[in-house]
Amino acid sequence: MSSSLLFYLCSLLCVALGVASVACVSLWSSRWRGGFAWDGSGLQFNWHPVLMVTGLLVLYGYGAVVYRVPLTWGQNKLPWKLLHAALMLLSLILSILGLCAVFDFHNAQKIANLYSLHSWIGITAVALFALQWAVGFAGFLLPCSPVAFRKLLKPVHVWLGGSILLLSVAACISGINEKLFFVLKGTPNGTQPYSSLPAEAVLGNSLGALIVAFGLVVLKILANVNWQRPDSRPGDTAYTVRGAGKNIQK
Amino acid sequence: MSSSLLFYLCSLLCVALGVASVACVSLWSSRWRGGFAWDGSGLQFNWHPVLMVTGLLVLYGYGAVVYRVPLTWGQNKLPWKLLHAALMLLSLILSILGLCAVFDFHNAQKIANLYSLHSWIGITAVALFALQWAVGFAGFLLPCSPVAFRKLLKPVHVWLGGSILLLSVAACISGINEKLFFVLKGTPNGTQPYSSLPAEAVLGNSLGALIVAFGLVVLKILANVNWQRPDSRPGDTAYTVRGAGKNIQK
User: Fold this and answer.
1) In chain A, which residues have their Cβ closer than 8 Å to the Cβ of B173?
2) Residue B123, Cβ density class (10 Å: 0-12 exposed, 13-18 middle, ≥19 buried)
3) What is the pTM for the complete model shown?
């Protein structure tokens, strides 16, 4: 199988897993958890998983792999750079809205913020993401950014990008696990217990499995040296030569 | 800074984070959770986090990076391959013991097994790890294994290795988060609630932060093409030429 065909198969899988994750988390919040509102109630909390999975995971993952599409390699990089920055900005905005949803809910219900490990990992992911976007914008999109700075920034940007995705997956998994324990308590609140694996538990666990699979496919696409845009490959002569002059594009 | 010096700094960080994670989880189980036993009680459960963090995360991570030490590149690969296999086998044995600890505890306490997302992710990690070890042993250590099979297996082995580490990190984080919610319930069981961040919560959250940092450093070491043993680099001519003949070493 050619490397390019394998790339498109992986990308198709990536798109499908992302869509399935968003569908699954939306179904969970809307059908099993009662739907959405922005009123400080549990219905406001329901925006949190939907916005975080859609923003911090799926759109983020899509935004991360746009440079890898071989069809775009012969084209000017700028439109793809702008698409990357736009997708990441949208992803960041949705993530921040997702944080607002849970903070508002906690404040209205007098629940403490940022004490659980899930919240520590999640807030670190969003903070690093905001920093990454701002430094990436200044370094790679502002014309006044020096080439030497871009060269230095590039490997850090790539590594931090993958790391944020790993944090995002860990935050999603711990959050889903925690939520299922909170809501499926059994007799005390009239639900079936999580341990008897009712339909909602299977849905939540399947969402977790989809999220992990999505993260693995995105990281696989990012890690494959043969799928990196030729002017970006580590150790690639073209990159090194361009890196020393004005042709470096990112 | 030279690439080799950076490698040793990253490795030092990797070793330090691994040791700190094991120390932290041991301290948690022994001092805050009452110590260890193998009698079906909560003290048997306490082996679970210690064995999983030590086996499935830290020893696994150490085992994954042994090929990356530049000092070894001029040497025969076989002893390093044996060290890799031995570390991974020890890691697998500890992980299986860690699963036995929690299954025994659940069975003795009449708690269901394998219903939570944490358990789904964890059991998948251990099952894939066992498969990876067995196939890796057959493919890379048995002399009768065909070179063509080794060539085919190599990228799958490397990718699956990183994926198991990601699963392991997600399982650890969701497990620690879940355990802290279970044990720090506040008034009903006479503890301070998790939400008031008592010392045990800070210890557990810090353990989670150490685990994530360890995972990121290991994945960073594995992802750096310049730190891959020369005969293993993707697209490396030596590898390609050797791969076609009898000199391929893994």
Assistant:
1) 117-118, 121, 170, 173-174
2) middle
3) 0.92
